[in-house]
Amino acid sequence: MRNARAKSILKWSAAGIIAALAIFIVAVLVFGLNGAKPWINERVSKAIGRPFAIRGDLSLGWRNPDRTENERLSWLPWPHLAARDIVIGNPDWATTGPTMANVKEADFSLNPQALLSKNVVIPSLRFDEPNLNLERAADGRNNWTFRSDTSPSEWHVNIQRLVLVKGTVRLVDAIKKADVRADIHTLEEGDGKGYGIGWNMKGRYNGEAVSGSGKAGSVLSLQAQTAPYPVQADIQAGKTRIGLEGTLTKPSDLAALDLQLNLSGASMAHLYPLTGIVLPETPPYSTRGHLAGKLNAQGGNWSYEKFSGKVGSSDLSGTLDYKSGKPRPLLTGSVSSNLLRFQDLAPLIGADSNASKARRGAPVVQPPGKVLPVEPFKTDRWTSIDTNVKFTGRKIVRDKDLPIDNLETTIQLQDGVLNLVPLNFGVAGGSFNSTINLDGREGNIKARMKIAARHLRLNKLLPAFQPMQTSLGEINGDAALTATGNSIAALLGSSNGEVKMLINQGTVSKLLLEEMGLNIGSIVLTSLFGDKQVKINCLASDFAVSNGQMTTRVFIVDTDDAVISVDGKVNLKMEQLNLTINPQSKGVRIISLRAPLYVTVPFKKPKIAVDKGVLALKAGGAVALAIAAPVAALLPLINMGPTEDSACAALLREANKKPVAPPPGTQNKK
Asked: Closest by alpha carbon to 310, among 350, 265, 354, 356?
């Protein structure tokens, strides 16, 4: 019964198709196909809600369909239409002119069976010399989505494949600030990779000049299930170069991608206009990895897998995952470096040279009289994405052979608040642990920093400096600071809090003191210290920081032979040392040790003019600079020495008190 009913439906369907074709053929023979153009133009214009016109010849032929396209009724020939000089208009809001597209010639076949259900099914649409003007407005409207001007049409158009033969495509996008033109040309067959067209592109994207070339498949499939579409491209955008090769699935919807992606440029921060992903300022870089994922109008989900490359002189590798979502997309992953050079970290905080800034296109140069970096952070980008990326630097090398290793941090950015929790690394046999919170939601950063240094060994601080190798003892310390500002200079210049440092039960080489400048004659040194290691009972410093000015509350160096006390201020805003050094001998051999010394120098010129008649000026200046100069880098903060009594017991008890800092934007009352 069911078979009989199916045969009946099939018979009447075939009869209907044949009747429709017969009527169509008679109309063409009587009136000519060109006579139907006004009717076609009107119907298509109504269906797409735009002006449409076939201004050239319209011809009709007949072709047998591919069996893979339609198993049923495959014996029935399909009408094959060719139209010349086709024009499609733009919507009223478009700025690229009245025409969205014009085509020299288009040809396609129609599935006649689908016409019975008011579906216009076009298995393959071929355009010769198409010229397309694609445009997206600032409010998200685009001219490639067609809508009826009146009620929705009962007819549906389904184009399954698109073939382009020579032509141009122009994209104007108000959201991405893009105006790009691509010229398309046909490639010779037989390249073995499925490429059929080549293209050259030029224009601007997000304010950057862009240019490039590449290849693509000759047939662009618009069906959901289809073979991957091959693509290859080499694009230059400003100072960034992008190379890719691989496949897309359903390119009309960017359903999926599988690409080998190469990136290089002057700074990773330059990728922001192209990708919307916030990355730090870096030296010149290059990476290579596998990009895979599914894209959508919001960005989709994708992974840059197992990438590797160079940033400056440092290696870099890892995997990053991007996931679109509301209210912001999310970037997660892990990145590592086996050998990270300290100088390659400088652009992150604007501490690189002006020559380096020029190479990466930084708009702000470092003033000649300033040490602390003045380049502002781009906080306006911080609210565009959330991140949770772990970074590991297994070995870090800096100038003068100071080894830093095992750097670990997790970079968390959420709703404009950047956290480095924690930021830890090893240095000189000890550890440097910190938590940093930077709130950039209001443009001007509100910062909170807590930093602790533990067990930094004196003989490893400068491994290439031989006199330091016989020195014993450890440095410990702590700092708690809050600040507001939009650069390192502004933050430190407004900082409030406390900084403490301690060396307990150590020794220092006499030759080291000579190298530091305490060299006014071997007789004096020998009579005071002897030709041996000088024992340090303790070195304790305690600074109160208020509005960028560090004031000594305690700063004493106690050796077996002398006590040196330091009073004064370190002005981080003005980058100026203003310290008084009071050396006091524990004996009466060197009376001149009791003379006060004055150190008033800018950070930029740390060398002190020596008054050869005053003993220990250079030594005192070196002690002061050892505390103040590192502020220009990362504030090596310190505390927590042994608890047993010593000659410095009172100082140790004071140094063991944890530093505190007021809330950001308020001044320290201490």
From this structure: 265
Overall average pLDDT of the 624-634 stretch = 30
CB 62 within 8 A of CB 34: no
Residue 571 host element (H or E): strand 562-571
Q: Three-state SS for 270?
A: helix
pLDDT at 23: 46
Buried/exposed code over 515-537 (b: 16+ C-beta within 10 A; e: otherwise): bbbbebeeebbeebbeeebbbbb
Q: Per-residue pLDDT tens for 130-166?
A: 999 999 999 888 988 876 555 666 767 777 777 888 8
Of 449, 432, 323, 450, which is closest to residue 387 (Cα–Cα)?
323
For residue 446, give both structure tokens.
């509100």
Residue 323 confidence (pLDDT): 92
Write phi, then psi, for 654 (nearest 5 degrees).
-70, -40
Helices (H), 308-369: 354-360
Q: Who has greater pLDDT, 85 or 17?
A: 85
Amino acid sitting at position 9? I
Residues 6+ apart with CB under 8 A from 215: 187, 193, 195, 197, 198, 199, 230, 231, 232, 233
One-letter-per-residue 3-state SS of 183-231: EEEECCCCCCCCEEEEEEEEEEECCEEEEEEEEEECEEECCCCCCCEEE
| Predicted pLDDT of residue 166 | 87
pLDDT band for 284, please (50, 70, 90 cuts).
very high
Nearest to 320 by CA among 300, 290, 294: 290
Element (H, E) at 111: none
DSSP string for 4-45: HHHHHHHHHHHHHHHHHHHHHHHHHHHH-GGGGHHHHHHHHH
Q: Give the residue carrying structure tokens 């010593």.
A: 646
Nearby residues of 363 by Cβ (< 8 Å), 6 or more positions away = none
Closest CA to 524 of 590, 467, 591, 582: 590
End-to-end CA distance of the chain: 99
**Nearest residue to 571 (alpha-carbon basis) of 430, 289, 371:** 371
8 Å CB contact between 99 and 88: yes
Which one-letter amino acid corresponds to residue 297?
A
Mean pLDDT of 343-349: 85
What is the pTM for the complete model shown?
A: 0.74
What is the 3-class SS of 354-405, one letter each residue?
Answer: HHHHHHHCCCCCCCCCCCCCCCCCCHHHCCCCEEEEEEEEEEEECHHHCEEE
Give the DSSP letter string of 446-501. EEEEEEEEEEEEHHHHSTT-GGGGG-B-EEEEEEEEEEEESSHHHHHHT-EEEEEE
Contact 256, 249 (CB under 8 A): yes
User: Would you give the DSSP letter of residue 616?
Assistant: T
Mean pLDDT, rounded, of the chain: 75
* Cα 327 to the center of its chain, rounded Å: 19
H/E element holding 584?
Answer: strand 576-585
- pLDDT attached to residue 348: 86
Tell me, letter by letter, the H, E, C secondary structure of 541-560.
EEEEEECCEEEEEEEEEEEC
| Residue of 225, 241, 172, 175 lying closest to 203 (CA atoms) | 172
Residue 43 to residue 23: CA distance in whole angstroms: 19
Cα distances (angstroms) measured from residue 200 to each of 205, 414, 445, 525: 15, 39, 43, 76
Q: Which residues pair with 126 in a beta bridge?
A: 107, 163
Question: Residue 399 corresponds to which tokens in the numbers above?
Answer: 């100038």
